[in-house]
Protein: HPr-rel-A system PqqD family peptide chaperone
Amino acid sequence: MNPDHFIIHEIGDTTFVFSRLSGTTHMLNLVSRAMLDFLTDRPKPLGEVVAGFADYLQVPKEECPSGVVRRLFDELDDVGLVERVSP
Structure:
């Protein structure tokens, strides 16, 4: 995620992300926003995202199963907020 491509506003627990590239605004919950923050510092392959996201959230892996992390990433990818990189 390139932070220059987005304008982010928070209202309570909801984050609104306006994509300058698509002109679309997206509403995100706290976990989706955390995923964007996790991906902002540098591109990460999906395997690294799956392996490290629970640690980033500081929760046990059981509370953040790999299938959920993959689905969240796929949803953010589908709407154009993140994109896959090669391992």
In short: Strands lie at 6-11, 14-19, 25-28. DSSP finds three helices and three strands in the chain.
